[in-house]
Amino acid sequence: MTSGRNIWLAGICAASVLAAGLRLGDIVPGWVFRTLCTLALGTIWLRLGQQVWHRLRQRQRPWFLFWNYALPVLVAIPTLASLSDDVVPVDQRFLAAAATGAVLACIYRLIYLKNKNMRKKIVAGNWKMNTLPAEGVELAENIRADRNQVCSCVNFIVCPPFTHLGGVIEALRGSDIEVGAQNCAAEDKGAYTGEVSAAMLAALGCRYVILGHSERRQYYGETSATLNKKMAQAFANGLQPIYCVGENLEEREADRHFDVVKTQIEEVIYNLTPAQFARTVIAYEPVWAIGTGKTATAEQAQEIHAYIRTILREKFGAAADETPILYGGSCKPSNAPELFAKEDVDGGLIGGAALKAADFLAIGKGFPQK
Description:
By secondary structure, the protein is an alpha/beta fold. It folds into 2 domains: 2-113, no CATH class; 121-365, Aldolase class I (TIM Barrel).
């Protein structure tokens, strides 16, 4: 994908040089040259804008659309007309707008290059099979009450049990705290006793769903084949999957952790379209360090997160640099700052600490201050 971007950029440059040469040689009329320049600048404008778009948080995107797209059209064309006593040809108006847009897109791109890690900062709470419905609503209300103590740049997600979803969603309505489910069915509907479909979750107001969690793989025998179906159901219903990968103690001690994680990614994530991948969050779980008495260091977390991003980059190119990768190995307020300081750790999938509002929010304070 990266090479593809280089090809289109080289093509635009070559076409621009050729058009300039033809114009200097009076081989083509001026309007043809201006049209070619407009197309070249417009392509650069759109492509650079697309790259920045995926880096922005949801609430930043309307402003970006205005400044990067609407403003050049609303300002450049009238300004050009005011500088001339004659009627400005249409091709010159479009060229002015495209040139202005390309300059603005380059500025946005430079900002992106200066701040390479503009990925979402996410703290997601997996409540697992804990709390009763009333307790879950109370927990959600407590999180909401003190949410303003944490930077708005941190995205909080809570994933309560199925029975709590309606109450928790209602308790968080109007806030920026998102709600996700802990699982969804592999089928859309039918005679599947005990299952909850992605459509049902979306209808309640869920935005996210955890898929491939180590406990689902271990206790319920979930395979890549099953997870491919669940991922398809999630995307079909507008849910964003938090896809979990990770190795157990035996695999870690056999030095197979890289192979295990690579397989889990290739067998599921590699089947996504670029648009689906752009909506995916990855969570790494060091299963070997959960409840075993062993501890995963921040350096070990960074090592495997960087490897995961490398594997993602092999398939999706530069888009992998925009994918949040969360750490799911006993993240607490005490170790969050050390973990989140690592370049490829973009947040945490929190277990036990997510059941206390103060601890959950304190983890959100662990991101480096810039």
